[in-house]
Give the backbone structure.
Amino acid sequence: MTMRTPLGRVRGLGSAKSGTEHFWRQRLTAVANIPLVIAGVVIVLSLLGRNHAATAQILGSPLIAIVMLLFVFSVVYHMRIGMQVVIEDYVHEEKLKLVLLMLNTFYAVAVGLAAAFAILKLSFGV
Amino acid sequence: MAETKIPSPVHRPLSPHLSIYRWPITMTMSIAHRITGSGLYFGTLLLAWWLVAVASGPNAFATFQAVASSFIGRLVLFGYTWALTHHMLGGVRHLIWDTIHGLDPGDREWLARATLFGSIALTIVLWIVAYFFTGGLRS
């Protein structure tokens, strides 16, 4: 049996001084998502029933494109750290957990990049 | 890490867990927040598909339109709308809790009900707007 006190055992193993970063970014993107999702829903609703040319033109106009890019970035960031928590909560097998955490980031980056690329392409009109 | 095992001869009382309580609405809304969040996670793929389809050209756009306006497509989009409004209202509820307000039993039950009925009402309103005030019927 060790003679070290409980405090002595944990000293130096504690907080990496970044413990609230995840919590903070979750809230930051959550707050950002409120106006951005409302704007995104209004944009989608106003585009319903329009043909391809009109949809492409409206989505590519600077103001709409900027709002959509902000929307995509905030939403993708928020969903990545949200899914990370879900994985950490329910997957206890270490290797599988690491694989899923990696896939989570790959998925978020790929979806976010695809959406952002599409918006930029429409906006720059090439 | 064997060193860190603390011998505990004292059997302390355990706090009651999920199986002990009657199932309250706050618990349902808590898990619903996770489920809707996970649904939206995969639903973002639809958003990306839509944007890429518009950027790709009329043919890709027509394919997306055909899938989205099919019965299954509309069902998925309806579910997506509800997940979005539910997760947003649930998120606002969490932001209120972050300010240490609304945590009393009456308040949190009220907030849970407001999240549920508010999201259903918002979903229906959005679809009425989509069908009757914008071009939803034409697509």
